[in-house]
Amino acid sequence: MYHILFLTILTLHLIYDLVLAILAASRRGKPLPEEVRDIYDADDYARWLDYSAEKRTIGVVERVFDFAVLCVLFGTNILAKVYALLPGGEIVRSLLLLLLFTALLTVLSVPFDWIRSMKIEGKYGFNKSTAGTFIRDEITDFLVNVLLNALLYLCVAFVYGRFGVRGFWIVFLALAAFVLVFSMLVTTFQRLYNKFTVLEDGELRDGLTALFEASGYALENIYVMDASRRTTKVNAFCSGLGKFKKIVLYDNLVNNYGTREITAVFAHELGHYKRRDTMKNTAFNILLMALVTGLIVWFAATPAISAEYGFDGVSVIFGLLAMQAVILGPAMTLCMIPRAAMARAFEYRADANAAEAGYGEDLVSALKKLSKDNFSDLNPHPVLVFLEYDHPTTADRIRAIRRREGA
Question: N or C: less crowded end of the chain, CB within 10 Å?
Answer without folding.
Answer: C
